[in-house]
Amino acid sequence: MNKMPLPNKAGEPEFKLKLEPNDKISLKFKAGEETTVDLKITNPLKDRQSFKVKCTDNEIFRVRPPLGFVKPNESTTVKITLKAKSLPDPQRHFFAIYHVACETKATTARACWTSETKPEGVIRLQAAIEETEKKEDGEKKEDKKEDEKKEDEKKDEKKDEKKEEEKKEEKKEDEKK
User: Fold this and answer.
1) pLDDT tens string for the chain (177 positions)?
2) Which of 24, 56, 57, 162 would give a disulfide with 128, using CB separation of 3.0 to 4.6 Å?
3) Cα of 41 vs its chain's centroid, Å
4) 3-class SS at 141?
5) Helix (H) or strand (E) holding 110
6) Which residue from 35, 62, 55, 58 is spatially nearest to 131, judged by alpha carbons?
7) What is the C-alpha to C-alpha distance for residues 82 and 74, in angstroms, rounded to an integer?
8) What's the gap between Cα 64 and its chain centre?
9) Are 113 and 100 in contact (CB under 8 A)?
10) Residue (of 55, 54, 47, 56) closest to 17 by Cα position
11) Do 124 and 151 share a domain, yes or no?
């Protein structure tokens, strides 16, 4: 699994904003449940920036907000949610984050992103999807714990029986004397 951003395509400009995390987006997968992580975008530049976050599959990932502004020396947080019915291919998915300087007169981030807009920075972060423990595995662990408990109880019973036999033998020896 890559622990750094995926390489840019030829001719794509280097990403100039700061991201946390800056190497990958780590998501835990559990069937039927949503997982959400935060992506913090910080603008160290002197101009207001508009960002756009795209994902490889809108059916399993939700990015909120997918577009927005970051003022100079400020940060914003984007929420990335994974909701999939089955474990997605952990090597296939990534998030592409783009940014462009956007004039202060633009009232919406969408207005900054036209078909002619060329991003001033691009980065792709791998979606590191990790499956959490399955219920079946949890049930197996519970069964194993119960089995171990029963074995311990049997050992204790045998010890108690042995002690009783020793007591009986001591009584018999005492009676002989």
Assistant:
1) 445 688 888 889 999 999 999 999 999 998 889 999 999 999 999 999 999 999 999 999 999 999 999 999 999 999 999 998 899 988 899 999 999 999 777 789 999 999 999 999 999 999 999 988 655 544 555 555 666 666 777 677 777 777 777 766 776 666 665
2) 24
3) 18
4) helix
5) helix 109-112
6) 35
7) 27
8) 16
9) yes
10) 47
11) no
Q: C-alpha dihedral over 29, 30, 35, 40, to 10 degrees?
A: -20
- 13 domain-assigned: no
End-to-end CA distance of the chain: 79
Residue span of the structural domain in which 79 resides: 18-131
Kindly state whether residues 141 and 63 are assigned to the same domain: no
Helix (H, G, I), strand (E, B) or coil at 138: helix
Q: Which of 62, 64, 60 is nearest to 51 (CA)?
A: 64
What is the distance between the alpha carbons of residues 40 and 78, in angstroms, rounded to a whole number? Answer: 6
Does one domain contain both 107 and 172?
no
Tell me how far apart the alpha carbons of residues 49 and 106 are, in angstroms, rounded to a whole number: 11
| 3-state SS, residue 97 | strand
The residue written with tokens 């004039």 in the block is 103
Residue type, 98: Y
User: Other C-beta atoms within 10 Å of 127: how many?
Assistant: 24
